[in-house]
Amino acid sequence: MKFTPRTPREGINVSDVHPLAEAATLIAGLSAILVAIALVIVFFVDLVILFLPPKLEARLFQNLVAEQLLSAEYDTPQARALQGRVDSLAEQWPDNPYQFRAGILLAEQPNALALPGGIILVTNTLLQQAESENELAFIIGHEIGHFKNRDHIRQLGRAALLGLLAAALLGQNVDSLSGSVVGLTMGGFSRSQESAADEFGLQLVHGTYGHVAHAWRFFERVAEREGDLGPFASFAASHPSPGDRIERMARLAERNGWPLNGPATGLDGLR
Amino acid sequence: MFEIVATLVLLMVTFFIGNWLEKRHYADIREREHRLREFPVVTFKTIPATWRVESSQLAQGSVVVSVDYFKRFVAGLRGILGGRIKTYEPLLDRARREALLRMIEAAKSDGCDAVINVRLETSRLASSRQGGKGTAGVEILAYGTGLRLAQ
Fold it and tell me: Counting Cβ atoms within 10 Å, is residue A166 exposed (0-12), middle (13-18) or buried (19+)?
């Protein structure tokens, strides 16, 4: 037997792939898979919502949201006055399947929220800044519009499932996630969702008062203050720019022949 | 946001440093392998009949390697889809060859003329993080029987 001196052969145990190319391939592939899964989730949630009646939704969420996630006032005289306004607006929605529950949230920003289960929360700051019932009615109508299109439950479903997906991938524990799910739920809807809610809200206002005067006064004031967003910042961040909104609503009123003049209704009992 | 930027910076820095170290190590390995290529290192268990052995001893060399951040990141992604962990391959290749070279160098400096019955072994070093489930590094041990031959 003969011994032949030789150095080891290269390229057997090591793949000839640049590490950056490997990283790029993996990142691109995984991103594509994630996007696909996210799309399936979005589609799946939309499908489930078709088969989730509002009554069941209310049973699942009303107590949870009202009593555990956000501490809002439901039993003060103010809140009961608000409930009355919400109910009379909701009467303009003929086949409304929801039993709305109105509450007042103590917060520094003027804002209103639609939460799963038919909960409508208005911040005390919004009540203080509102100058007439009409503009408040439009904001509530807008939230009812979110219920009509089931935006809130859609958002919740997406946020919960996408959150789970993120947790599974990042190894985050699910507990700390529920907080961010709530955050996402209350975070923005898409622009088209907001427009649809605006449209429905204005329709409710017209049905209730017979005109749409003063309805978007709140946004006009926001637009006037655009320079210094201040306390309006949060509302502006989660909604389309007030200027666009005002224009769109004026056009909408014109198209439907809704009167742009009429008396402002007072805010009795709401302050 | 800060976390993402920090991660990206860390990935870039560890990639460039790791890549540079790897190139340097490979150059060193190739140079030593070439220099030591005349030294017989075989896996036979028995001594060839023509060899006249004067004495024998244990010959061993070992290497402990760790993974850099970039390689671990890419391997983590690979761990989701499965397949060859290509970023670990050169790392372990270097470790095996380095362990063999250290064994040869040790045997040579002890006056050995050959090493027979060479074996390679691997063991994982547990990390103190993640409750000992993580891997701090890998040891590769090359060992065999060093032989001094009579001329």
Answer: middle
Measure the CA–CA gap between B143 and A225, rounded to whole angstroms. Answer: 79
List alpha helices for B2-88, DSSP H. 2-35, 69-81
CA distance A13 to chain B (A): 7
Q: How far is A192 from chain B (nearest CA, A)?
A: 28
ipTM: 0.77
Residue A168: closest CA among chain B residues belongs to which residue?
A: B80
How, if at all, do strands A101-105 and A119-123 pair? parallel
Query: Rounded mean pLDDT of B41-58?
Result: 92
- Residue in the block written with tokens 């201040």: A230
The secondary structure of residue A68, as a DSSP letter, is: I
User: pLDDT tens digits for A15-66?
Assistant: 888 989 999 999 999 889 988 988 898 898 888 888 888 888 887 777 666 6
Q: Does B19 touch chain A (CB under 8 A)?
A: yes
Q: How many CB pairs under 8 A join A and B?
A: 49
Polymer length in residues for chain B: 151
Residues of chain A by 3-state class (helix, strand, coil), percent to 5: 60, 5, 30
To the nearest whole Å, the CA of B125 is away from the closest chain A CA by 22
Contact flag A23-B30 (C-beta cutoff 8 Å): no
